[in-house]
Amino acid sequence: MHVPVWFWFALVVLISWGVVGLLQKLSTNHLSAEWALLWLAVGFFILEPWLYPGRVIFAYSFRSLGWAFLGGILNALGAWALLAAMKRGGKASIVAPFTALYPVVVVFSAPIVLHESITARQTVGVVCALAAVVLLSTESSDTSPH
Predict the structure, then answer these.
(1) What pTM value is reported for the model?
(2) Kind and range of the H or E element at 134?
């Protein structure tokens, strides 16, 4: 069975962001969301030279750089809001899965913005993901172990 290359990158995302959810909660136990976001940015800057060695940033079109810059701004805003949610008492086991539903926004906007089609199976997957978030994000008042 041939595994496509994109799968391995997606697996790195799954593992990295899974661990990040824990690290973000641990950091916001001691830092403000703003300081945690700053250190997140430092991590990006440290990793960047190894990801893109020898590349010149302005070799790309202004339009492409504009989309990437806007994506970076929204990514930073989302990261800050995630850290702020954890800092203000959100449980990592609830906040991280809830915020990990951001692809639902893509699923619903891709047909309009990117003219991509969504299959019935993918629609069912989105409904299941939404149901999972409802189940994951419901906190019970019972704190006794079962």
Answers:
(1) 0.69
(2) helix 120-137
